[in-house]
Amino acid sequence: MVTALHTQLDLVRDYVNTLDFETGIDRISSPDELAMWFSEQGLVDDLVEPTDEEHTDALAVREAIRELLLANNGVSADSDGASKTLESAGREARLGVRFENGLPVLAPETEGARAALGRIVATVAELAPTDEWKRLKTCRDENCRVAFYDKSRNRSRAWCSMEVCGNREKARSFRARHAASPS
Ligand SMILES: [Zn+2]
Prior knowledge:
Layout lengths: L3 H13 L14 H10 L11 H21 L6 H14 L2 E6 L2 E6 L3 H16 L8 E3 L8 E3 L12 H19 L3
Antiparallel strand pairs: 1-2, 3-4
The structure holds zinc ion (ZN).
The site of zinc ion (ZN) has 7 residues, from loops.
């Protein structure tokens, strides 16, 4: 079943994954591409025209979220820096509390790219207190850093895929162990 919560989790995961660390391919490498992505995700009604500054801020927000998801994976991350970036984006979007059917939600009081980015920050803010949030992680492999949702029962998954990143790590620690022990 697809719940609103899962839609929110998907949005955050997909935003982080607009950059593929391994290939360097960035789906939002320009303001135009960013506008397209916001539109595809339904974060804006019309195509917006982000300024260069808004585009730079959007990339900073993406990396800030990646840091938080790394912290969810038990890796010490720059959580303070990430928090400041998200707070600033929230301020720029003028996030305010609105009540929808009696329930408080955070909503931007600006329009355009700032508002779209504000909606992403609001989504993070709404997810952060939930148990589900802790399952949203970035891969522990520093060359990968893909965001994924950990469905394991005890929330212990460290890598986006055991086949690729998990095995790479196993091979590394195997080599390290053998290099350290006298033959
Ligand atoms: Zn990975």
